[in-house]
Amino acid sequence: MRSLFLVPLLFVSALAHAGFRLMIPNGINVPNPCTNVFGLWNAVGHNIEIGGGAANVFGADFVTANTKWTKDLCQKDSDMDGKTNGEELGDPNCVWTAGATPAGDATGHPGICEPMSSANCMKINVNITCI
Length: 131
Ligand SMILES: [Ca+2]
Hints:
By secondary structure, the protein is mainly α. The chain is 33% helix and 0% strand.
């Protein structure tokens, strides 16, 4: 009975993430920076790759931007790793609009300080979960 109740909630959650991912450049192709995982980080605005739970720093900034890719959000370095969100998501000039092809590929994760093994990033990424 309990699992029957949870299935619709998980489905709704997945749909919400899928929608948000299309509202940022390369949102469906953001690399997973965890050294023990190869692939993509699907819930870009969350501390855990599969989503749910608290938002990461980029997710919080995305909400502050009214869930839109704005010039301010693009130019911000949410995860404080020295690269702007636009540089990490393949929109270094902050000109991307929803539905357009980004200038380049995503080169990093805007909500996770990289490289994760650096002393500075280990302090910033305390809430990030690699699984
Ligand atoms: Ca960054």
